[in-house]
Every structure is written in structure tokens, then in C-alpha cells.
Design goal:
This protein is an alpha+beta fold and 214 residues long. It is built from 8 helices and 5 strands; from the N terminus they run H-E-H-E-H-E-E-E-H-H-H-H-H. 33% of the residues are buried.
Length: 214
Amino acid sequence: MRHDTAVRRLRTIAEDCDKLSPLLDGHGGLFAVYAFGPVLDHLGEELDAVNIALVLQLPAAELPWGVETPGCFSLAHLLRLDKSPVLRRWRPAEWPVTNHEIRRPLLIWSREDGVQKAALDALAEQRPEPFRLAETEDDALAEQVSRELEASLTHLRAVRRDWDDIAWRRSHRGYGVYPEDHLWQAVDGYLDLLDASASTPAQMRSADGGAGRE
């Protein structure tokens, strides 16, 4: 995918969010959408897909890292994200959109301000830096990963607990997705955060300091 094609894809996503905003409100509704990853970090290069982070009005406990709830799948289908070369991540509004993977994202749509035309135009011209969020400080990043790891483990245990519950399995089936997919997401999200917790700069400094004191 060429850079200009990727930007058009992001612009289409933002415009679709704007058109459908009345349907995206309420509990679990869409709050904001950010672009992140190679489209920002490797300007002008060919891409396999665009990365976006979708912020939902959900408590963090209902939307741990790497998980797509049944409501997320419905929203992705509504926005045609499941038919496009788009890699999506979901974030609860009560947490920062940034974490160990989503670094210095670019807001492309918000419920309050709509399509971020200036940011998208700047990205099209390969000058998005002024519109990107600031880098998260190391200590704050380590703390965020720790919080998310705890929430992810709680979710994984809940999936194991409910695995044989018929109602849970029925509610987690649809759009070509099955309970096994939700189990995989819970495991993958937890292990991803576990790896990140051991590799964030602040954690590594802490480990080095502890080794020096022994």
C-alpha cells in the first residue's frame, strides 16, 4: 500500500466515523480514533496495512489489551474495518491511548471535534510530527504496562472460569468469530504485556539497580 493510499484509507475511516457518529454513542460508544505505527514512523514507505487505535467509552476492566469484545466486532463491521487492510487495537477511555505498542499516535477523529482534517493533510504531506502525541515518559509507561498486565490476567482468568458456560459461549460467537478466538486474544494480550513489562526502559533500570545492590 502506497503512502497516499494509506492516508486515504485513514481519511475514509475518519469520515465514516463522522457520518455514523449518532450510532456510535452511548455505553461502549466510540470516543476517538488514532493512527499509529509504520504510517507515521516510516513515512513514504510501502505498507501492508494501516494501524489504528479506537477509544471506546468502556471501563478498562471490560476492554483489556488485545481483546475484541462482541461489541468491538459489531463496530468494526459497521465501519467496514473487517473488509479493509486495517490493523485495529481497542482502548478504554479511562486509560491513555498510548502504551508499549501505541507510541506517539495521531488523532484522526474524535466525537467532540470530528474529522481531524489538518492532521490528515499534514500526514498526506509527510509532516505529521506537530500533530502527534508526546512520547510517554519511561516511568509512566512502566506503570501503565503494570496496570494493563493486572487487568489482562484478571480477564484471562474470567475467560477460563466462564469457558464451559453456554450463555457466555453463545454471546461470544458471531461475525465469523468463536469462543476459541476470544481465548486466544486473552492469552496473547496477557503474554504481550508480560513481555513488555520485562522490557520497558524503567523496568530494565530497576532490575539493573537491584542487581547492583545485591
